[in-house]
Amino acid sequence: MRAHINCENLPIYTAIVVALLAARVSSPILDGLAFTILVARICQSSIHLLLEQTNMVAGIRFAFYFLQAISMIAMGILVAISHGKEIGCASPSLKSASTHAYREARLSNL
C-alpha cells in the first residue's frame, strides 16, 4: 500500500538525468555519483527490509538516504556548472577578437 513512498527520489533523479542528457554532460565524477546513489539506495532498502526497525536502524537508513540526496545535489551542481561553461563563456579566441573589435570601434569614434 505504501510502496509508492519508496520512490520519493526517483522524479528528482530522473530530472537530473534528463538535464545531463540535454546538456550532453558526462564525466567520471558523475558516473561515481550515480553509482553512489545506486549503492546507497540498495543499502537503504536492504536495511529497511532485513532489520527490525529501531531508532538506530532508522538513523542508519537516514544516513544512506542523506548520501543519496547529497549525491543528487552534487550532480545537479555539476550539470549547472558544465552547462554554464558551454553557454556563458565564449572561447578565448572569440573573446579576444570581440575585445579587439570593441577597442578599434572606440578608437575610431574618438
Provide an overview of this structure:
The protein is mostly helical. It has one domain. Helix content is 81%, strand content 0%. The protein is built from 4 helices and no strands. The protein is rod-shaped and about 80 Å long.
Essential attributes:
single chain, 110 residues, mainly alpha, 0% strand
DSSP helix fraction: over 70%
By DSSP (H or I, 4+ residues per run), the number of helices equals: 4
Tally of domains = 1
Mean pLDDT over the residues: 81
Contiguous low-pLDDT stretches (5 residues minimum) are 90-94
Structural class designation? mainly alpha
Total number of beta strands: 0
The end-to-end span amounts to: 77 Å
Give the biggest sheet.
none
Sequence of secondary-structure elements: HHHH
Strand percent estimate: under 5%
Shape: rod-shaped
Spatial extent as radius of gyration: 23 Å
State the gist of this model.
The protein is mainly α and 110 residues long. It is 81% helix and 0% strand.
List the helices and strands and how they pair.
Elements: H1 10-23, H2 28-50, H3 55-88, H4 92-109
Helix pairs in contact: 1-3, 2-3
